[in-house]
Design a protein that fits this description.
- There is one protein chain.
- By secondary structure, this protein is of the alpha+beta class.
- The mean pLDDT is 94.
- The protein has an 8-stranded mixed beta sheet, with helices on both faces.
- α3 packs across α4.
Length: 505
C-alpha cells in the first residue's frame, strides 16, 4: 500500500459492459507501446468525448501540460491499435475539446492568462493552430466547453469573479452572457458537440450553489436544481471583501475576506486564513456553510490566493512550484501581516489552515514566522517534502515539487520542507496536525515525524497535538466523520484564539 512504485507502469484496459472482466483487453501501456518513451511515473488515463470517432489516452503526472495519444475508436477491437501522438508536453495544452473534425485547445503558451486555439482533428498542427480567443490581460480563461451551437468559456478575474462568454460557430465575436446571479465561480457541463445542452453551476463565498440550464435559442437561464434548496438565515448579513495585498517581493496577491456585518477593525477579531498553493489549483469562491460557522462565531474567514495556484494565470502557478515554492508561504505570511497592520486582527488571534499539498504552505509559514500566528493546522499535510518522492504518490509529484536527483531542485525541496526547518528553542504556536492511517497520498509518517520534532523543539506552553484517524485515507470516510473532524479543527482554532465559549473549564 505504501510502495513508491504502486502507481508506476499503469495500464488502460477496454471492458465491454456485461462481460467477464477476465476478458478485458489491455489497450495502452508503457510496455505495450515502448516507442512512445513513457516513464514509469506516467499514469495512463482515457479521455472519451460523446459522439467523437476517436478515443484519446493521456500519460499524466501532476504536470498540467497534457501528453495525449489518439486512435480511431473502431480500432478498439484490434490487438495493436495505431495510436498517434496528438500533443506532447512542449505544446503546453492544458484542456482540449473536440468536434467531429476540429480540436479546440486551452493553452498558456505565449499567453500566461491562456488563449483558445483551433486545429484539425484529422491532421492536427498545434504549432500553427488558428487563434480563436486571444489572451485577456485582465482575466484568466478558466473553462472551455462545446455544444452544437458553439463554444462557451469563462473568464476569471483575480480568481474570485467569473463571467461566461459564448462564441457561435462561424462567427468571430464572443458575447458575454448575462447571468441571473453574480458568480464567484462557474462550472460548465455539456453532453458534447452534438447537443445543445449546457449547464452552469454558479457559486460564491456567501451565495449557495445554483445549477442552471442555458437555453441558447432564447438566451435565457432556467434554474434546474438537483436537490432541495436549503435556507441559511444565519448567514444573511455577511460582508465579502476582495483585496490585493503586497507580498514580500512587491507582487500583489488576492486576499478574500468574509465576515459578519458590523465587525470593527480593533485588532481583536479571530481570523482563520486558508491557503493551498499547488498544482495550479485555485481556491475559487464556494458557498460552504460548514466553514462559515467560523464567521457565525464572530470570526473572519480569509482565503489567501497564494502563488502555486492559478488564480492569476499559468505564471501564477509557475511562480509557486519547485525553486519558486517559497512564494507560496511568503504570500501567506504577507496576508497575515496585512491583517495585523490594518487592525483586522493580531498575532494572538490568527489561525492558518491548509490540507495535503497546502501543508507545505502552512508548515513553512509556521516554521519561518512562528511569532505571527496563534494557531497552525496542517491537515493530512506534506510536511517532509524532501522525502515525499519516496512515498506512494511521490514520483508523480516530481513535476510539481522537484526531485532530489537534481541538485538545484533538491535544495529547493530542503527549503520547502517544514520538518527540516524546525529550530530548537523556539516558541511555536498551538498546532493541530492530522493524518489518516490509510492515506496513500500523504503517508502517515510525514505528519507524524513533523509532530514529534515540533514537540521536542517547542519551548512555549502551547499544545502541539497529533490526531490520527484510523479509518480514514486522505479524506474523512463518511459524512459523520467529516463533521466530527470539522468540529475538532474549528473548536481548536477558536480555543487557541481566545473565544470565550471554547475555553477549557
Amino acid at each position: 500500500r505504501h510502495d513508491p512504485g504502486l502507481w508506476s507502469n499503469t495500464k488502460i484496459y477496454h471492458h465491454i459492459l456485461n462481460t467477464d472482466p477476465s476478458n478485458d483487453r489491455e489497450i495502452f501501456s508503457r510496455e505495450k507501446y515502448p516507442e512512445f518513451n513513457l516513464t514509469p511515473e506516467d499514469v495512463n488515463i482515457p479521455f472519451i468525448f460523446n459522439g467523437c470517432n476517436f478515443i484519446f489516452v493521456g500519460a499524466a503526472t501532476t504536470d498540467k501540460r497534457l501528453n495525449i495519444f489518439y486512435a480511431p475508436i473502431h480500432e478498439l477491437g484490434k490487438d495493436k491499435i495505431s495510436w498517434k501522438r496528438l500533443f506532447e508536453r512542449e505544446d503546453e495544452v492544458h484542456t482540449f475539446r473536440v468536434t467531429e473534425n476540429d480540436l479546440y485547445i486551452l493553452t498558456p503558451k505565449d499567453a500566461p492568462k491562456f488563449k483558445i486555439i483551433k486545429t484539425s482533428l484529422i491532421n492536427p498542427d498545434v504549432a500553427n493552430a488558428e487563434l480563436v480567443i486571444a489572451e485577456n490581460p485582465n482575466a484568466r480563461i478558466s473553462n472551455l466547453s462545446l455544444t452544437k451551437e458553439g463554444l462557451f468559456y469563462t473568464l476569471s478575474f483575480n480568481g474570485v469573479e467569473e463571467k461566461v462568454y459564448f462564441l457561435a460557430f462561424g462567427t468571430t465575436k464572443a458575447v458575454e452572457l448575462k447571468l441571473p446571479i453574480s458568480a464567484g465561480s462557474i462550472y460548465l457541463a455539456t453532453k458534447g458537440f452534438k447537443y445543445s445542452d449546457l449547464w452552469l453551476g454558479i457559486s460564491g463565498w456567501t451565495s449557495e450553489y445554483k445549477r442552471y440550464r442555458y437555453l441558447t435559442e432564447k438566451d435565457e437561464f432556467k434554474l434546474e436544481s438537483l436537490f432541495a434548496e436549503a435556507e441559511y438565515p444565519e448567514y444573511a448579513d455577511l460582508i465579502v471583501e476582495e483585496l490585493m495585498i503586497e507580498s514580500h517581493d512587491g507582487v500583489k496577491v488576492p486576499l478574500s475576506l468574509v465576515y459578519k456585518k458590523g465587525i470593527k477593525k480593533n485588532g481583536r477579531n479571530p481570523v482563520v486564513i486558508t491557503a493551498y498553493g499547488a498544482y495550479g489549483g485555485s481556491l475559487k469562491p464556494r458557498f460552504v456553510p460548514n466553514n462559515l460557522l467560523w464567521v457565525h462565531e464572530g470570526g473572519i474567514l480569509a482565503t489567501a490566493h497564494v502563488r502555486g495556484g492559478s488564480e492569476l494565470g499559468g505564471q501564477w502557478h509557475k511562480d509557486g512550484q519547485k525553486t519558486t515554492k517559497a512564494n507560496s508561504w511568503k504570500d501567506l505570511i504577507a496576508s497575515a501581516e496585512y491583517l495585523i497592520n490594518e487592525k483586522y486582527s493580531s498575532n494572538k488571534k490568527i489561525a492558518i489552515y491548509g490540507m495535503s499539498a497546502g501543508g507545505i504552505t502552512i508548515g513553512r509559514a509556521l516554521t519561518e514566522r512562528p511569532d505571527l500566528f496563534a494557531v497552525a493546522i496542517p491537515e493530512v499535510g506534506i510536511l517532509n517534502a524532501l522525502r515525499f518522492e519516496n512515498t506512494t504518490s511521490g514520483p508523480q509529484n516530481v513535476a510539481e515539487f522537484g526531485t532530489v536527483k537534481d541538485s538545484v531542485e533538491c535544495m529547493a525541496l530542503i527549503e520547502m520542507d517544514a520538518y527540516q526547518n524546525i529550530k530548537e528553542g523556539i516558541k511555536y504556536p498551538a498546532t493541530l496536525i492530522t493524518a489518516g492511517m490509510n492515506d496513500t497520498r500523504v503517508i502517515l509518517w510525514q505528519p507524524a515525524k513533523f509532530t514529534a520534532r515540533l514537540q521536542a523543539a517547542n519551548v512555549s506552553d502551547n499544545p502541539i497535538l497529533f490526531r490520527v484517524d484510523y479509518e480514514a485515507g486522505h479524506v474523512s470516510p463518511n459524512t459523520k466523520k467529516y463533521f466530527e473532524d470539522l468540529a475538532d479543527v474549528l473548536s481548536f482554532a477558536l480555543w487557541q484564539t481566545g473565544h470565550p465559549k471554547y475555553q477549557v473549564k
